[in-house]
Amino acid sequence: MTANSDIHYMRHALAVARRGLGRMGSVRPSVGCVLVKDGRVRAAARTGDGGAPHAESAALAAAGEDAQDTTAYVTLEPCAHHGRTPPCAKALVDAGIARCVIGALDPFEKVNGKGVEMLRAGGVAVDLGVLEEECRAANQGFFLAVRENRPFVTLKCAVSADGKIAAAPGERTQITGELAHRYLHHLRSFYDAILVGKTTMEVDQPQLTTRIEGYVHEAQRIVLDRPVQEMLEDLAARGITRLLVEGGAKTHTSFLESGLYDEVILLKSPKVLGEGGVDAADFSNLKGLKSQKTRALGEDLLAIYGCSA
Ligand code: AOF
Ligand code: ZN
Question: Which CATH superfamily is 3-145 part of?
Fold first, then answer.
């Protein structure tokens, strides 16, 4: 059985890792690493923006000599290859850590299993699979890009009580309130790119930026102009591992019909837009997705559907 303390520190590492989502700029994971000794966190770091430095080397640098005899909690297997940086597994061994607790194995073939071997060969005790599902979920964009050549896709839609996304065709309509608006800007900061259809681009002319204090993030803006599967492969090839699809209805429908989506986020307003409004896509049948979270945001309701258990 996994010790409670292992789960606790892995949660910490996951929280640190998640802050890097949407900031890697290429098909690279955002990893979290926490170094712990005698019940005290000595250092915590994530993969740097743009993919470097790796989480482990940043945490080791922060801990200095204090890294000796720590337990390292890492959300993803430490790397074993010479890439832009020397192998993290070797750096952990050289720093004299006692134990390494790993969330998920790295799917990248130059690393997969080899990081674990390198640690064990260096005398480090290794435990695998602590909060594995959460660790994979946190880096699902990276896993999908490596294995399926496409980014993690979230469909997001703000919808009125009567299922509309605008009061009339061609009319930009603010449907949800201030808290939902803030939530959306926060959400955007965890994506590499935001996609809209041509009509939305023309009608709403959205800036699609993150505009809240404390967040500096500019996701790439993408306008849907090709069959999606092809476009998604292209986006993955350009290093986009997390894509937020903001609509409109035609764009959402094309994703819903192709089945190429992993998560749906609906912001439901109590407002009624009436007969002349533009219908939202039909989100009533979400293949295999389950309700993950429902919560009030002011007078609006946030509903998240995903595939984790
Ligand atoms: C780690 N810690 O923080 C990350 C890892 O091009 P490079 O040298 O940056 O290597 C990228 C690969 O390293 C990436 O595909 C993934 O397998 C692993 N990422 N590994 O030990 C980290 N970001
Ligand atoms: Zn590394």
Answer: Cytidine Deaminase, domain 2 (3.40.140.10)
